[in-house]
């Protein structure tokens, strides 16, 4: 998409530090890293969220995530990772092109876990929520 910053990176209109690339996906270092080696993995076609990717492309993206982690593992040897994506504005998404954050973690780095993203379960019990799915 013309005005999408990540499409511009794919089209080499703006520079990036690529750490993994295949036919379907590109992984590059985040320009404002939250951890050493913080990278984002994106599909090479413009899609705003994973709901706009078909299963095949989502599988390709998943493989690219794993291969990018393999690469980070080889080069930086972190103690752990947090991997995930901010999905739409309520989920913290700023760039409207699917991107999966890979944040390498080190013992004692002061960071939290996925559980630190939110602690606001609302007023329904887990049983009540489960009934909505049945
Ligand atoms: P999100 O809040 O999930 O949409 O995160 C978007 C991420 O893209 C942020 O972590 C930004 O630092 C990163 N970002 C934005 N522009 C660039 C760029 N030109 N190169 C690398 N990373 C970028
Ligand atoms: Zn795009």
Overall pLDDT score: 98
User: What is the radius of gyration?
Assistant: 17 Å
Q: Strand percentage, roughly?
A: 15-25%
**The CATH class:** Alpha Beta
Q: What's the main sheet like?
A: 5 strands, antiparallel
What small ligands are held by the chains? Answer: adenosine monophosphate, zinc ion
Structural class: alpha+beta
The CATH level-2 architecture is identified as 2-Layer Sandwich
Distance separating the two termini:
39 Å
Instruction: Please give the order of strands in the largest beta sheet.
Output: 1-2-3-5-4
What is the H-and-E element order?
Answer: HEEEHEEH
Say which CATH homologous superfamily is assigned.
HIT-like
Number of strands: 5
> Helix segment count?
3
Q: Helicity level, as a percent range?
A: 25-40%
Plain-language structure description:
- By secondary structure, the chain is of the alpha+beta class.
- The chain has one domain: HIT family, subunit A (2-Layer Sandwich), CATH 3.30.428.10.
- The chain is built from 3 helices and 5 strands.
- It has helices at 5-10, 55-76, 126-133; strands at 18-21, 25-29, 39-43, 80-84, 100-105.
- Strands 1-2-3-5-4 form a 5-stranded antiparallel sheet, covered by helices on one side.
- Strand 1 (18-21) and strand 2 form a beta hairpin.
- The longest helix is centred in the middle third of the chain and has 22 residues, at 55-76.
- The chain is globular and about 50 Å long.
- The N and C termini lie far apart (39 Å).
- The model has no long low-confidence stretch (mean pLDDT 98).
- Zinc ion binds at residues 1, 4, 6-7, 46, 97.
